Amino acid sequence: MTKLLSEFLIGEEGNIVSVAGSGKVRRRLFDMGVTPGAHVLLKKKAPLGDPLEVTIRGYELTLRKDEAELISLEMEGSK
């Protein structure tokens, strides 16, 4: 099942399928290691959903909700 990172619940994990957006935002995400195939675990979410803390490529990364809405993931264990 494909889901946006912004829709994940704490503890859910998956692999990045695609990163939407364009220009500087997309380039910034790619520079931080947010690329297709990377494994992501949602660790923390602020009460209003912004920001989110994820583990990706062995480090902790904090993303804004609008950035997380650009990242589509295949849920772990789903086909």
Estimate percent helicity: 10-25%
Structural class assignment: alpha+beta
Biggest sheet overview: 6 strands, antiparallel
Distance between the termini: 6 Å
Rg over C-alpha atoms, rounded to the nearest angstrom: 11 Å
- How much of the sequence is in beta strands? 35-45%
The rough form would be described as globular
- The count of helical stretches stands at 2
Low-confidence stretches: none
Query: Order of strands across the widest beta sheet?
Result: 1-6-2-3-4-5
Helix-strand topology string: EEHEEEHE
Instruction: Please report the total strand number as a whole number.
Output: 6
Mean pLDDT: 91
Report what the structure shows.
The protein is an alpha+beta fold and 79 residues long. It has two helices and six strands. A six-stranded antiparallel sheet has the order 1-6-2-3-4-5. It is globular. The mean pLDDT is 91.
